[in-house]
């Protein structure tokens, strides 16, 4: 039996994301086994697990790309697999590879989601430029993806995800391809944006440091995806080297990796 997430559901309010006793199999492969957790509105939660643990599968369930084999998934109270259209503007996703279109400039990439949602062109452009400014990319608005550094491309990708003003941001290994310093700066920027605009964020990472630095709550998953450990890092855990190390080692032990 996996432990169930024991964090309180905020003020009895509907959580932004709820997975209740989920199983998900692909043929004979069990990707998720009895997984339950929720993400409250305004929370930043990190999914930490080894490769193949079923993290992306959980994200796909939240996006409504497929339904669970067993259990209940709710996003803002809706079933994402059924209410896919209604949730289109609620959820945005940032991926490990930035998925920018090479023939569109940075601003044209950022406004794309808005155009798909049928926002008028001038308004879409205005919002795209605002988000480029928020991620410090104004100077790169008219450059093409191949003219940007890896960090700039990830920033553009995040601006694109945020431009549709989603309530929920899902990030799948968004920072893992960047060097340590770039990744750290971007994580700090993203946390700031999420808090400032009161977004809800679930982000996948395999780096323990990323999770401690960014998350209100860390869910450590075993394979197939099931909850092994849940931790809520405090400000002290982030700033005090010894505390950081203790939490890091505890998570590493749960993951079964060398610290
Ligand atoms: N569409 C699919 N069809 C068949 N098997 C799948 C499918 N999607 C995922 N799986 C399997 O489910 C398991 C979990 O995969 P998933 O991609 O969710 O892991 P992950 O935790 O995101 O791994 P990584 O850290 O490598 O991205 C794996 O064994 C994978 O092969
Ligand atoms: Mg994955």
UniProtKB/TrEMBL annotation:
SUPFAM superfamilies: P-loop containing nucleoside triphosphate hydrolases (SSF52540). One of its GO terms (molecular function) is ATP hydrolysis activity. Pfam families: ABC_tran. Keywords: ATP-binding, Nucleotide-binding, Transport. Residues 17-248 form the ABC transporter domain. InterPro entries: AAA+_ATPase, ABC_transporter-like_ATP-bd, ABC_transporter-like_CS, ABC_transporter_ATP-bind, P-loop_NTPase. Gene3D superfamilies: P-loop containing nucleotide triphosphate hydrolases. Belongs to the ABC transporter superfamily. This is ABC transporter.
